[in-house]
Specification:
The protein has 149 residues and is an all-alpha fold. It contains 7 helices and no strands. Helix 2 runs antiparallel to helix 3, helix 3 packs antiparallel against helix 5 and helix 5 runs antiparallel to helix 6.
Length: 149
């Protein structure tokens, strides 16, 4: 299936195509930024094992996604049910992996907080149940450790 739009790209045009050229408008640049932030956070977690950096990048991704959702043109004009359609997967995944990173640096309270926030805010997301299980296990283990001290 081919579409002939009458446009021909030269070799020079294709060489100049960069991520920056994909920015259709200011309204859509955040899509590239969020994906990059999430990728860098995930890379810091898995490849670099730099959990503090991963947490900071996941937090940055969450903040960016939240600000874009709030600032979407006309968002306040939509009814509440439309403003909160499907769970935001980027935020849900970022919260989950932040919780895991907090566990790695032994900040159990913050891990529990991240998992609880995910479970509370994104009940319909597939990671919600995993977050609830993590909270239950962490609380049980954390309380046992506190009692033995």
């Amino acid at each position: 299936f081919e579409v002939d739009d009458g446009l021909e790209l030269t070799e020079e045009d294709t060489e100049e195509a960069t991520v920056d050229s994909l920015k259709v408008s200011d309204d859509f640049t955040y899509i590239l930024n969020d994906n990059l932030n999430f990728y860098l956070a995930y890379k810091a977690y898995y490849d670099d094992r730099n959990y503090e950096e991963a947490i900071a990048k996941f937090q940055s991704t969450i903040e960016s996604e939240q600000s874009q959702t709030k600032n979407f043109p006309g968002a306040s004009d939509f009814p509440e049910r439309v403003q909160q359609p499907e769970p935001n997967s980027v935020i849900a995944k970022s919260l989950y992996w932040m919780g895991e990173a907090y566990i790695r640096i032994n900040q159990i309270d913050k891990a529990i907080e991240a998992f609880e926030q995910l479970a509370r805010r994104f009940r319909r997301h597939y990671l919600s149940l995993a977050a609830q299980r993590r909270v239950a296990v962490l609380k049980a283990k954390y309380l046992k450790e506190k009692e033995s001290v």
